[in-house]
């Protein structure tokens, strides 16, 4: 069943998909974190409209499935509004980053809110402006609380990138599916290797998460 | 006689339905040391928190160095102060908190030098030098690179004082600064406060439960009860022979 020769046939084919998986991942991480911070701060804004609007975004994107969001962006939006994202790449990246951005914005919001009130008061007593309080006192502490959770979402985002194969992007899973459909008996070898590929890609992310966790433990011991 | 540096006029404060302060009138002279005593829940802390702009009065005005703290004039109209106005007026006020509120992500030295650099735009070198000097003065010259979590409560509170003093305030507020400390650590903090008081330059308001200490360093003692200043006078008057019954029973509980 799973033979060395089969593995050596399948391996180079799957390798072709790595580039897409990795670029979608990197772009999604950047856009996802950006979205998380923008939405997280908007939800803390004094502006009611901004706050409610962002709240709606977060609930909609958390409450519906990522794959349906992906299909909306890729298939439905262009037809409904004549609004084309230009490429399957951006449809994939946007779907993943909007979805995970919604989840992570709650981490941003929660972390900032959980910095003790006394910190804001001490900063006020030192006559800092509200921007200085955020930049020098609240945010640096909040980030340390965000890091471990952010790390978990890194790995989740990697796994989510496999969905872009469904809109025809040639990532690792896409090549795996092609191999399987041309020879069903190879399915165990193919999907075993696909798992291995994703796991190896996850290793640096796991390592990074650990680093973030240990960094976050430094210097936040609250009083 | 000099003008008061802080003037409370008919200041009221409610939290929801609860009226905490019901008309406070108070003049604080430059370099005057005032101790505020009273049962818990009497609004002692609220008095100084309003001066530090941490709570807004419900009614009345607080004037700092001739400037109205919570109100500003704009187009000849009096309106609620915005942040810019608050920052202009509160710049000469410093505060030390019951629970220290040090910044846990910064070293002791950084805790002290951050505000002079970013708020007062002092050069980094000068802020650093003055912070080190101040930390040496409170006896922590050997802890500069430590983080707050590595210090004892008394040490933390001394850092908090150095952090406030580096800003060169004209008015220092102390909010029950020994209440969260283990008994054996109280004295080291009081010693530092005594040192600051003896230099005599700053006006100080101390909300405290340390009666002997209040008697020792205060020029004037206020007894707060039921949301008003129920009694005030020199320490001898207040602790000696006041006829106010509430004050007597309050002091009695402390002297058991």
Compact overview of the structure:
The complex is a heterodimer of chains A (223) and B (256). Chain A is built from eight helices and no strands.
Description of the structure:
- The complex is a heterodimer of chains A (223) and B (256).
- With 223 residues, chain A is mostly helical.
- Chain A has a single domain (4-217), classed as MetI-like fold (Orthogonal Bundle).
- In chain A, 81% of the residues lie in helices and 0% in strands.
- Chain A contains eight helices and no strands.
- Chain A has helices at 4-43, 48-63, 66-81, 88-114, 117-125, 130-160, 172-182, 187-217.
- Chain A starts with a helix and ends in a 6-residue tail after the last helix.
- Chain B has a domain at 104-167.
- In chain B, 37% of the residues lie in helices and 27% in strands.
- Chain B contains nine helices and twelve strands.
- In chain B, the strands form three sheets. Chain B has a six-stranded mixed β-sheet with strand order 8-9-10-3-11-12, with helices on both faces.
- In chain B, strand 11 (220-225) and strand 12 (228-233) form a beta hairpin.
- The longest helix of chain B has 17 residues, at 183-199.
- The radius of gyration of chain B is 19 Å and the shape is globular.
- At the A-B interface, helix 5 and helix 6 of A face helix 2, strand 8, helix 3 and helix 5 of B.
The name of the CATH superfamily of chain A reads MetI-like
User: What is the count of distinct domains of chain A?
Assistant: 1
Strands of chain B, total number: 12
- Our estimate of the beta-strand percent of chain B is 25-35%
The average pLDDT value of chain A, as a whole number, equals 90
Hey, roughly how much beta strand do the residues of chain A contain? under 5%
Number of helices of chain B: 9
Helix residue percentage of chain B: 25-40%
Name the overall outline of chain B: globular
Structural class of chain B comes to: alpha/beta
Number of helices of chain A: 8
Pfam families (chain B): ABC_tran
Keywords (chain B): Amino-acid transport, ATP-binding, Cell membrane, Membrane, Nucleotide-binding, Transport
GO cellular component, one term (chain B): plasma membrane
Protein name (chain B): Ectoine/hydroxyectoine ABC transporter ATP-binding protein EhuA
